Structures are given as C-alpha cells and as structure tokens.
Amino acid sequence: MTMLVMTGTGTGVGKTITTAAIAALAVAGGQRVAVLKPAQTGVRPDEPGDLADVVRLAGDGVTTRELRRYPDPLSPEAAARRSGLPTLDPGEIARAASDLDTGHDLTLIEGAGGLLVRFDGTGASLADVAWSLGSLVIIVAEAGLGTLNATALTAEVATKRGLTVAGVIIGAWPAEPDLASLSNLEDLPVAAGAPLLGVLPAGLGEASPAEFLAAARAGLSPWFGGEFDPELFAGCASAGK
C-alpha cells in the first residue's frame, strides 16, 4: 500500500488536477485508488468540491472521502472559527488515511493550500499528517516567476520536519511559457531538492476523461505510470519558444 501527501506552494497551483491525474493513471493501471480531502473550504454543502472534480476526471472507480467542509474561502482553521464548525486534528486525518489505505493500493491525501496551512488553533498542519503517516510528499508548484522561492521554502520545511519530498510537479504549464517558466524547468528540482516528476498543461480540468488520461500519461513521470521525460520536455518547450 502507498500513501502520498499532495501539497502545493500556494492556492490555485493545480493541486486537485495533479491529484486527479495521478489517480487516473493508477486506475488505468489496475490499482485501487482513494483520495482523501481532509478539509474543503470555500464550498457550500450543496456544491461540488474538489473531490467531485477528481471523480469527473479520473473516473468513479476512485474512492473519495472528505472530513470537513467550510463555506468560507479561508484556511481550514479560520474557516472553522468563522463558521463555528469543528476543526480537524492530524490524528483524525491520519486515521482516515490509514483506514482507506487498508483497502486500496494508492491513497492520495490532498491538502488545502500549502504544507503549513493550519487545521486548528494549535497550528496542526498537513506536515504533521505526513509525519504521522510516514508518507512521501509531492509538491505541486507554479511554473513562473516566484515559484522557486515558494518551492524551496516548502521543501526546506518538509525536510526539517523529517519528511521526504519525492518530487515536484508543475500543475499548470502555460500555453505560451515565458523565460522564467522555461528556466524553472531546470531550477525547480534544485529548489525542491527532488526530481521534476511531471508538467501538466493549464486548462486540463476542462478535458474529457479520455483526453485527461492521455494528458496525464504524457505529463507525469513513469514513477506514476506515465511517460514524462523532463529533459525531452525542456528541449521541446525551449524549441517551441
């Protein structure tokens, strides 16, 4: 059984799409896959959340579980405080992940925002969950200017907390990459202290399931069952520019 903690360098970096892409490849490879979203914020009870996108893109063969939902688009701690709803603690999240892990080949735990976003008033975060589970961390990063600092900070915190960063994935590669984005293909692995395990195109969330699976296969490393080659991608991206 394998558990991966999916964290981002911030909000809106493509974390849910990346989670869905990894899930889609695993399902296509015959694996039993679960996705755990401990805290969904900014979504009302009657609205579809991130897990609905995962199922839409990766297929209904994916088991999903959400532990808390808060209507305000804030950190889980702030959203819980504002709504008066119960907070989360790492123990509850770890138990849910372990429960899913017993019946699945791959369990993906998708955080809210970055690695240190607070779940409760004690400062508990996704980093505590990853440590308690002993799971690898995947960093989903932006492509362009500013991403190196955010990625390096995330990786440094992870390492100091005894976590292992398995790799970094660019969650939304622009159709027309600028100089910073092209340069970051080489520099992001240095900032993360881990390999570049994939690059997914921007707008992938609008794809059909078949198109999504094809893009996931092309954009993710063989480590996930894909065909992504970072050197080949960098060469083609630079040539296209």
TrEMBL record:
ATP binds at residues 12-17, 53, 110-113. Pfam families: AAA_26 (PF13500). Its EC number is 6.3.3.3. Substrate binds at residue 41. One of its GO terms (molecular function) is dethiobiotin synthase activity. Pathway: Cofactor biosynthesis; biotin biosynthesis; biotin from 7,8-diaminononanoate: step 1/2. CDD domains: DTBS (cd03109). It is an enzyme of class 6 (ligase). Mg(2+) binds at residues 16, 53, 110. Its cofactor is Mg(2+). It catalyses: (7R,8S)-7,8-diammoniononanoate + CO2 + ATP = (4R,5S)-dethiobiotin + ADP + phosphate + 3 H(+). Keywords: ATP-binding, Biotin biosynthesis, Cytoplasm, Ligase, Magnesium, Metal-binding, Nucleotide-binding. The keyword Coiled coil does not apply. It is found in: Cytoplasm. The active site is at residue 37. InterPro entries: DTB_synth_BioD (IPR004472), P-loop_NTPase (IPR027417). The keyword tRNA-binding does not apply. Belongs to the dethiobiotin synthetase family. Homodimer. Catalyzes a mechanistically unusual reaction, the ATP-dependent insertion of CO2 between the N7 and N8 nitrogen atoms of 7,8-diaminopelargonic acid (DAPA, also called 7,8-diammoniononanoate) to form a ureido ring. This is ATP-dependent dethiobiotin synthetase BioD. It comes from Amycolatopsis nalaikhensis. The lineage of its organism: Bacteria, Bacillati, Actinomycetota, Actinomycetes, Pseudonocardiales.
